Amino acid sequence: MLYSEDGKQDPLFITNYAIINVLDVLSRTPGVGQARLFGALNYSMRIWFDTQRLDNLQLTPADVIAAIQAQNVEAPVGRIGARPIGRDQQFQLNVQTQGRLTTPEQFGNIVLRANPDGSLLRVRDVARVQLGAQNQDVEGRLNSEPAVAIGIYLSPGANAVQTAAQVTANLDRLSQRFPRGSNIW
User: Fold this and answer.
1) What is the pLDDT of residues 101-150, one digit of tens each?
2) Bridge-partner residues for 154, per DSSP?
């Protein structure tokens, strides 16, 4: 179990930290068949519709989803005026795009509709956008406090005692770099 002793890190942060810094190390430990988070809270962009507002504007959730999918794409870019263009070309321009959207503000700025008067209807006008957990169906607890559980499965034929000792050694080594206030039980 990974947890925050002082409560400064929430389970979403601890899950993300474990995915990036702990799971791969545990999975590579000799004798470990698999290391897995129980109730992983993966980061996700959460969009909470104001259904009354959508209805008043004659929009559906599908309209919002379609706009997000259309405006949150990675497009290949390149150069304008690069070879194999003719020799009389005098300028070459590099084209850059922002790429995929990453912040709630960027998602909130997605345009749903341009109105006849020139105004724009954006996602933020019909929904609340926040970065949060993709799924909150499962919650880990340790002594009634939020925690993130890691399941470690033994590989076939491995020595359980040796594997447990190596897992403990890896966790001890990793715990020296844990964020302040985080610990393992």
Assistant:
1) 889 999 999 999 999 999 999 999 999 999 998 888 888 888 888 899 99
2) 32
83 burial (CB, 10 Å; 0-12 / 13-18 / 19+) is exposed
Q: Which of 72-76, 129-133, 157-161 is predicted with the least confidence, judged by mean pLDDT?
A: 72-76
pLDDT at 7 over 80: yes
How far is 110 from 124, CA to CA, in rounded Å?
Answer: 8
What single letter denotes the amino acid at residue 43? Y
CB-count exposure of residue 12 (10 Å: 0-12, 13-18, 19+): buried
Nearby residues of 22 by Cβ (< 8 Å), 6 or more positions away: 2, 35, 150, 171, 174
pTM check: above 0.70: no
Which two tokens mark 163? 């594997």
Neighbouring residues of 173: CB distance < 8 A, sequence distance ≥ 6: none
Question: Six-digit token pair at 24?
Answer: 């791969």
Question: 185 Cβ partners below 8 Å, 6+ apart?
Answer: 1, 3, 142, 147
